[in-house]
Design a protein that fits this description.
Blueprint: E1 5-11, H1 15-26, E2 34-40, H2 47-54, H3 56-60, E3 64-68, H4 75-83, E4 90-94, E5 98-100, H5 104-113, E6 118-126, H6 143-150, H7 153-156, E7 176-178, E8 186-190, H8 191-197, H9 209-219, E9 223-234, H10 244-262, H11 269-292
Length: 296
Amino acid sequence: MTTDLSIIIINYRTYEFTKQTIESVINKKYSFNYELIIVDNDSGDNSLKNLKKHFHNEIDEGLIKLIANTENKGFAYANNLALKQTNSKYLLLLNSDTIIINDCLEKCLKFMDTDKNIGALGCKVMLPDGSLDKACRRSYPNLKVSFYRMSGLSQIFPQNKHLNKYNLTYLDENGTYNVDCLSGAFMLIRNEVIDLVGLLDETFFMYGEDIDYCYRIKENGLKIKYYGEAEIIHYKGASSQKQKSKLLYEFYNSMQIFYNKHYQDKYPWIITVVTYTGIWTMYGLKLFINQIKPTK
């Protein structure tokens, strides 16, 4: 029997969060069948051992499958390992620090069934304080969009459509509409997308692979949809607390990778120099601020 949904979760030293995420899925009843594929990214902290112990019944029943990496090669690499091992109708990339709220999965699958041209679907992603995780619906970070965001103009004028293309803060968070890209914290993908677009780009270690994947999906003529009627909670950054400097580098490096891949050939060399300068200047400033912040 074909599985309706494969839920892929990457664990990296987040046992308690990962356990919470899994429980938010399996403690609900569904009209569809599903499996969870948990990839441990060489946590080295007994995460995998504890998951095996806590969910031994679900593992024995085949509901949960575990993959143990012997090396952390990044978020995209780990997701691809799982994607290669499933042929479900739908595939959900789900962060290990999220909670599925109510009938979110049921709603999303039913919505996907209404339009075969939806390549990927994202839901409303809420932070623990009740505010929207702005990364859950975005425009591509082209030069103009990035300038407005990095200059602070988008924050000063959050309702201005021209200045706020990146985070789309002028749009109703409960609405449904086409967007450029979604967050990898919750990205529901139609199986056919893998055949059409391929797997995630492993050049991205962490950050940027979700934007790149949405870009490739849209290039192939499919829609990227934001669906605000379904909801999750995202405890953002749980897996990155202990290596902030490295992941700060990866965040800005992903910007350069994305630019090189999708924009470099479209602009004269001087624009590339300015772009690189802007990216790494921001990285230097953020790194400096990060170093002088008092430790909590």
